[in-house]
Prior knowledge:
Structural class: mainly alpha
CATH superfamily of the largest domain: Amino acid/polyamine transporter I
CATH topology of the largest domain: Amino acid/polyamine transporter I
Strand order of the largest sheet: 3-4-5-6
Largest sheet: 4 strands, antiparallel
Radius of gyration: 32 Å
Amino acid sequence: MIYFRNFKSTFSKGITIPSLIFIIGVCVLSAIYPNLTQNLLDTIKSFIFVNLNWVYVWSVTIFVLFLVYLMFSKFGSIRLGANDSKPQYSFFSWISMLFAAGMGIGLMYFSVAEPMQHFSADVFADNPVTERAKDAQLFTFFHWGIHAWAIYGIVGLALSYFAYRYRLPLSLRSCFYPLLKNRINGKWGNVIDVFALCSTFFGITTTLGFGVVQINSGLETLNIVPETSFFYQLLIVVVLISLSIISAMTGVNKGVKLLSSINIIGVIVLLLFVLFLGPTVHLIGGFTEGLGNYITEFFQLTFSTHTYEEDTLPWFYNWTILYWAWWISWAPYVGLFIAKISKGRTIKEFIAAVLILPTLFNFIWMSVFGNSAIWFDTHVAEGALSQLASDPDALMFRFLEYMPLSSITSGLVIAIIVIFFVTSADSGIFVMNSIATKNAAKSPKWQVVWWGVLLAVLALLLLNAGGLKALQTMTLITALPFTAIMLLFIVSLMKALTIDRNYYEREFSVSSVPWSGEYWKERLKQIVSFKNHSSVDHFILNTVRKGFEELQKEFADNGIDAKINVRDNPTSIEIEIRHDVVNNFVYGVKNQVKKVSDYLIDEDNLPDPEGQKTYYPKTYFGDAREGYDVQYFTKNELISDVLKHYERFMEIISEEQNEMFISSNANKNMK
Length: 671
């Protein structure tokens, strides 16, 4: 713990100090030398977007395909928590909070601006108006659809799974547990969390900075403030950050949950207003056609790198690649928040909700506002909205002037942006404090105030100095290394999910099937002890060999020639019966080694193994089937097991339908 004079803190020194040095250093540099910093970062960003754009295309595609696979796989029924855990929040509250944290201010900022910018882009200027309108909707769907939520879903799922299923801290470092094991508690874990904290802070700061500018523009439109200036932006930041701090101090169960529920209702009211008082028939038809167009073009859009369309490459870099980088840079923050509210959901339920519901709502929202703006621009405004496409701060409010009750709807938009601002900031404060304290159960209230004040001060510093875009560029650059981290999340998840599923599906050991209870004391000793190489060799060369020799003699008495083969390195013994088939009957036992888990080595309630290895006798067969452990078999039980496999072998070769497969001559003729 760190102590600041009389203030007790739960901050982790190894995470908080490096993060603050980097965050404050970058922000101060961006404020003092905004142009120099911007030019330098733009050069780096351009190099990444031009030369490594394929990394984003492939990675985001993998994220989507992986989540769809999990949703329909056998892993989908695994619960994020204990098998009997229940969701902490109602479905409506869960979706509301997920939606508010995931998109928030962006919906208000880009719902009119993005479709209008695609519609009026010079690169598409030669296309017919109807084609430009369709493409504007398609590209907006693509950027705000399943791909964006798949990015959030990967991080949220990994965090939820390892936090609630493995009972690890709700931290990005925990997602590497299957790969790093206990090393996640060391410097590697700190590096991962420092990266997450810095990325979260930069993402929230830039987004909130742009949100403040839009609120200022809306207040000017309503004549509440006389101008858009730093003074009024300062007042807005002070008021909103104060509300965010108060909300964050009440916790997720109260502040964030209540505000998210209020906001989703406000969003739906505004949506219905524009839908029914705007060009309704056009909007419904446009949404229907747009959804079909998105489904039809899904894979083409997903894999498109515009390699053969050089004129559209700059647009591709500045929109699709920028969006993938932007969503990835936000993924630590949004993923942590989603994980915090998703305990008790099944993997299938989690993925379906995260991928489908927000995506569908985004499509409806973007269709209603974007298509309405384009319709007004071509039918009423005579291109006036297209001319404002480069001014997204004011575009939403100018669009609403073509609707009835524009003052009221503009006020509602400001209220929604304010609540989105507060929910994004308070959930961001919560997430940053969680990362900085390694998910401490309870932190002092002053730490919440600290993060809120730091957000406000640095956002205002950058707003005043013009360094906000430099910080945004820095955020986009950090997306590249985090892309690699997210790909490792997938590897880690698959490894853990496979172990998880096998744990619950694993049946009793084959060696326990013939147990009668007669030798229970001896078998208890065997179960809790670890075998060394020589003891397993002794079992194979004595118990197994004696059993095979008795079987060999009995087979001979029945006219069957059975051969016993003994090999070294590793020690193995097998009984073989030759037949005129592809695979002779073989039943063997070999000395096999396996690594003992760190948990068992550290467990005080079990005998200590010798090193990290233990040995056991494992069966193998002539047809390459997977063998099993027979260390608990007695000689007679082993003989019985050999006979079961020989009976199975005889049944297979006696069936006429298997003749082509098992006949040596048939196989020779096929060669």
